[in-house]
Design goal:
By secondary structure, the protein is mainly α. The chain folds into two domains: 55 residues, no CATH class; 171 residues, no CATH class. The protein contains ten helices and no strands. The longest helix has 26 residues.
């Protein structure tokens, strides 16, 4: 029964409310669950049709609170970083590898194909942020080695840890970095199909306040952009408010 519970925990949310009370048992309260919505389901095809119907009937996705759209937020953060004396590079924070990737940030997504295409473009841009090189000592301490610390997001995390100090970083900026990493996991769901990747993508959806089954692709894309804008704006606020005594 415990195995059954583990399997159901990855299914549509109606089945995810059980309690693996021991290694041998799995308990679920039929009165408080939404099993009733699946009465009459006789096949996997019926089940998927019912899940999609229920997901499509969900309330519109609520948007994250970000003062500016993502494009303007990234520009604003770039200006703030270049004004910071500890930011040791002259290049712009954001560079678009191609016009299609840059344009995607301002487009809507009307279907799943466009959503996944825009997610790929977004991550292409975020994966190429121009950030100061990682401090070797910090890279070894936080990631175990400089090899594990590769990537612009990891370098940004290491810079923020030094600039803000560990306590201030953990208080706010760490949430922003975690949100951006969840966006990466969600993007990987469309690019890779391993069970581990799908499980991480499901966790990312829940963290980003997306439904397990996305029916509103337009709302999902706008929500992802708003979450990214919120994260980068939080980083901007923390850098602007940091005292000029960082160790970078």
């Amino acid at each position: 029964m415990a195995v059954l519970g583990q399997l159901l925990s990855h299914e549509y949310y109606s089945f995810a409310g059980g309690n693996p009370s021991s290694a041998e048992s799995y308990e679920v309260s039929l009165g408080s669950s939404q099993f009733g919505a699946f009465l009459g389901v006789a096949s996997a095809s019926n089940y998927l049709d019912r899940v999609i119907t229920l997901a499509g009937a969900a309330q519109p996705l609520s948007q994250a609170k970000a003062p500016l759209p993502l494009i303007q937020t990234l520009d604003y953060l770039s200006y703030v970083l270049h004004a910071d004396p500890h930011w040791k590079i002259k290049e712009s924070l954001v560079t678009a590898p191609d016009l299609q990737s840059a344009a995607a940030l301002g487009l809507h997504a009307s279907n799943e194909y466009e959503f996944r295409s825009h997610m790929g473009a977004l991550w292409t841009i975020l994966n190429q942020l121009r950030v100061p090189p990682a401090n070797e000592e910090d890279a070894n301490l936080i990631f175990g080695s400089t090899t594990n610390a590769k990537g612009s997001l990891n370098h940004l995390e290491l810079w923020l840890r030094r600039r803000l100090g560990t306590e201030r970083y953990q208080t706010a900026a760490s949430d922003a970095i975690a949100t951006i990493r969840q966006i990466r996991q969600l993007r990987n769901d469309g690019a890779h199909a391993s069970p581990e990747t799908r499980a991480k993508a499901m966790t990312a959806k829940r963290s980003l306040r997306l439904p397990d089954i996305i029916a509103d692709w337009t709302g999902a894309w706008e929500l992802v952009k708003a979450q990214a804008a919120w994260a980068f704006d939080l980083i901007r606020q923390e850098v602007q408010g940091a005292p000029d005594d960082g160790q970078v």
